[in-house]
Amino acid sequence: MRYPHFILLCTLSPLALGKLCPIQGPAFPAPKDVASSSSFTQAKNQLLSTLDKAVHASNASEVTGIDPDSISFSLQVFNTKSDQPLLEYYHTAPSIRNSTVGVREVDADTVFRIASVSKLWTVLMLLIEKGDASLSEPVAKYVPELRDAAKELSHNATMRDDEIDHLRWDEVTIGELASHMTGVIRECTVSLGVFLTSHQVN
Ligand SMILES: *[C@@H]1O[C@H](CO)[C@@H](O)[C@H](O)[C@H]1NC(C)=O
Ligand SMILES: *[C@@H]1O[C@H](CO)[C@@H](O)[C@H](O)[C@H]1NC(C)=O
Ligand SMILES: *[C@@H]1O[C@H](CO)[C@@H](O)[C@H](O)[C@H]1NC(C)=O
Question: What residues form the membrane-spanning segments (predicted)?
Fold first, then answer.
């Protein structure tokens, strides 16, 4: 796609101008002993008491937008160096106190459905197992319909020149899809629509 190339060029341009461009890294060293930091303890206590107030306020659902009588949650903050949470907070909604399925008390061991967050784990596992090479591969390599759409585009100059309505799927990578950098519009009806109609796919 065009945009990532444009961004890449912008990133490289200081090099081309002969300016030094240091390798990006953390601006500050990672904190070592957060648990014993007084600033952290202060912020932690403030957060916990704010949460407590929010959850137990009589108008809690108006203030937070969630109803603490029907929503249970766990909050844990970890340091990568330790298994013990730096901060933890558990809220059990009164409505599950007599529940016959699942737990009646939310604690550190409660298991939640994580829904869409599971996508993060898929990508993390992919990175660990296979490295990041597949992220720069075109998505058309794996999806035959997109490969065919790209082929059709390459044979039709009118479609190829219409960069608003027709995507060059052979240039769109898995990494660009994962980082929302493809420029693919939400309802990509024209680009795929032409292809789907011409191939009579329903
Ligand atoms: C909720 O209650 C608190 C304390 O009584 C009050 O200060 C606040 O304005 C209330 N918020 C709303 C949105 O009603
Ligand atoms: C749970 O059961 C107790 C004892 O039977 C009852 O007093 C309470 O109202 C019930 N709570 C809910 C949320 O149903
Ligand atoms: C190219 O695509 C346009 C727009 O979809 C279409 O009208 C035209 O017939 C196509 N040309 C060829 C040679 O297939």
Answer: none
